[in-house]
Amino acid sequence: MIIFTHRGLEPSNPDFYPESSYEAFKSHLERGFGIEFDPFFTEQGVFVSHNPDLKIVGGRIATLDEVLELIKNSKAELNALHLKGKFQDVSYLDILISNLKNHPQAISKIIIFDVKPEAARYLKSKMPNIQLAPSVAHSFDIKRYNSLVKGTLLSVEEAIKYKKDGLYDWVWLDEWDRADKNGKEKMLYTAEVFDLLKQAGYKIALVTPEMHNTASPGLLGGKNHEDSNDKEMLFKRIKEIISLKPDAICTDNPEEVKNL
User: Fold this and answer.
1) pTM of structure
2) Which domain CATH number covers 59?
């Protein structure tokens, strides 16, 4: 199982480098983890930052070229490039393709996720060997949040349909929380969902529950994933997730997940 660190975070290490900094990515790659990172397109170039306000990163902000060079020279088997919905127009895709082609040895070490079908078709037409993944969510989460992420969320059924078209190699599962309509509970990370996706030929990557504390509380109105309310509950749930045998996990807690 591959472990991706989430945008250079490591909250269990209080002396660690600032998030999305060159130093954080370098440390994680040197320790054998894959990295999850967010290209941010500006008039000055493509930088790597989760937050559009580059001034708050706090460390040395890396360019996409620098991160790709780190990946190329690392022993990390695979890394996850988050292509946000707002950067999936052809003009941005051409810039991304140009950057990737400048680092051909890094391409096989990357999956690009959160990719809409139309963007996936374009990327595959230009780079047939690139590994792509849609973001797959529960139907209730799609209804609540898809407009906020520019329409990148697909259902399990839609992902299976697009697999037949040859667009995607992976799925990127995202269980936003446990709340369902009418006050009921739901789960996306289940043996049934995994079986359906694996039978379709997918490799499965997913995010652990605590990432909805650090990644997108704004989208949730400040509400966290219920399984991340305390560490005991969180790691109990992560153990359950590991038992489902995903191919990759993206987490804020790479060392703890490695030990599990």
Assistant:
1) 0.94
2) 3.20.20.190
Using DSSP, state whether 35 is helix, strand or coil: strand
Task: Report d(CA 6, CA 36) in Å as an integer.
Answer: 5
How many other C-beta atoms can be found within 10 angstroms of the C-beta atom of residue 182? 4
Q: What total number of domains does the chain contain? A: 1
User: Which range marks the domain in which residue 249 is found?
Assistant: 2-259
Record the tokens describing residue 246, joined without a space: 């995903």
End-to-end CA distance of the chain, in Å? 11
pLDDT at 59: 75
**H-only helix segments in 21-180:** 22-30, 64-72, 90-101, 104-107, 117-126, 139-145, 156-164
* Whether the predicted pLDDT of 12 surpasses 80: yes
State how far the alpha carbon of 104 is from the alpha carbons of 62, 63, 67, 242, in Å.
19, 17, 13, 32
